Amino acid sequence: ASLLLPALAxxxxxxxxxxxxxxxxxxxxxxxxxxxxxxxxVYLYAGHDEAxxxxxxxxxxxxLCFSSQDMVTWTEHAVPLKVKDFAWxxxxxxxxxxxxxxxxxxxxxAVEHGTIPGKAIGVAVSDSPTGPFKDARxxxxxTNDMTESKIFWDDIDPTxxxxxxxxxxxxxxxxxxxxxxxxxxxxELDGPIHNVSLPAFTEAPWLHEHKGWYYLSxxxxxxxxxxxxxxxxxxxPWEYKGLLNELAGNSNTNxxxxxxxxxxxxxxxxxxxxxxxxxxxxxxxxIDYLYYNKDGTIKRVQMTxx
Length: 306
Ligand code: FUB
What we know:
With about 300 residues, this protein is mostly beta strands. Helix content is about 0%, strand content about 45%. The radius of gyration is 18 Å and the shape is globular.
């Protein structure tokens, strides 16, 4: 993509990740990207895919953080959060998102619960977007309630959005998309959990706003493509608008973040394309431009490898 200009060598930074094309992080496998814009910097958060070459199954113990001022050169920061930072969790640094509120940074992350069967969502907090983060509650904010067809992995893939009035929403889910309001403290649900009706919802919801429209994008089908719906409210109702992209290389999953930064919109996702060892359990984060139509709908993303 033309956004990927030749990167300058910043020799002083010991753990610098540079990019001259997709995937943007080349020295580690990264999955389930989330992005945050704060004070002119983009922070890219991702799960660390650590499965050895040719081994199937996720091996994910920690999340990674990279920052950039230009979407070209990425600086890697010290590991800001690990599963073991949630004392009640067992493993699995699955998808996550960081949001900023009143100068604090809240990291919502899916993990395997240590005592309640299935996945759960934790929230960690820091004074800095690069951490270190610590468990904000000492317990999960969402756990498996064992009522939904005994699906143990349905409480995954949190996305948090704060609207202009300061109301925060937590969306999440696998197979069924759910949402609840968050209290202003960002660490407790506020009111009931709602089910969201979306065609062929698999997982990976991401909620964002652009020019008065709210967008709920998500992974659909399996292997996954990414689709989206629009609404005039962050609570829906949601009108399905179609696909955002096609299958992304040799990864069964895909997972997106959508941000605006310095006047441009970006589609951040993962695929399995980094090299011959890449695949469903060794994924790589990529970035391409995202374009809106005049009516607010989104043009199909052109995935690039440049
Ligand atoms: O990385 C583990 C899981 O794979 C995520 O939670 C899903 O979104 C899928 O990408």
